[in-house]
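[#protein-structures] MJ: dropping DUF1330 domain-containing protein here for a structure pass
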Amino acid sequence: MIYITQLIYIKGGQEEVFNQFEAIAIPLITKYNGRLLLRIRPTEDSFIEEHIEKPFEIHFVEFDTEYDFQNFMKDEERKKIVHLKEQSIKAVLLVKGEKV
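AK: finished. structure tokens for DUF1330 domain-containing protein:
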């Protein structure tokens, strides 16, 4: 089992485009033995302390294997909408981990 945490930073005014991308991309996760465990859109009062830019959204996802995650990233349907991701997302900080 691998875990993926993403801090997602979007471009100003691109929230709707980001939501369009997510509406297609998130359901594809299960096709590749993955599960979206948490999808958080923090509010200003959610932060106790910060030393980096506050993300628009935080995703916590698990996949059975690294191979499953890589196949998700290469999914043909996802590739068709990657332009929406590129249009709306300024940056993503992706952290991979495993349960200890």
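MJ: nice. The beta strands are 2-10, 34-40, 57-63, 89-97.
AK: one more thing. The CA atoms of residues 24 and 67 lie 21 Å apart.
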